[in-house]
Specification:
5 helices; globular; alpha/beta
């Protein structure tokens, strides 16, 4: 990855272990979003994790919640992706009740059956 000379690296759902920096270059900023149980992560990464806060928000849901605050169109255009990722990790019997976001409008457009089959 260092050969690509990135300024930023975003790692999703894979960084739940002690490790050297994702890119061993001090100027590279790394954001790691993960839901797996861990207290150690790659060095020098900024970590977003819900692993110690049940019910655990999945990486898909954490990413959705972060991105929708940065870009208003994400809430409508990507909500179904957050549902697919959440159902993939937590199963299709998940009840979308607080503290999970209200996805009723999403499920009107993308049925739970279609989300589960995706």
């Amino acid at each position: 990855m260092a050969l690509k000379k990135p300024a930023y690296v975003i790692v999703l759902d894979q960084g739940s272990r002690d490790a050297p920096p994702v890119v061993d270059e001090p100027s590279v900023k790394t954001l790691l979003i993960d839901h797996h149980l861990s207290d150690v992560f790659p060095r020098d990464a900024t970590v977003v994790s819900a692993c110690h806060y049940p019910p655990v928000a999945t990486t898909a849901l954490l990413t959705y919640e972060i991105c929708k605050t940065l870009e208003p169109t994400v809430a409508e255009s990507c909500a179904h992706l957050a549902c697919i990722g959440t159902h993939g990790d937590l199963g299709n019997t998940l009840k979308w009740s607080p503290p999970f976001p209200d996805m009723k409008e999403t499920f009107k457009i993308h049925t739970k059956k279609s989300i589960n089959e995706a």
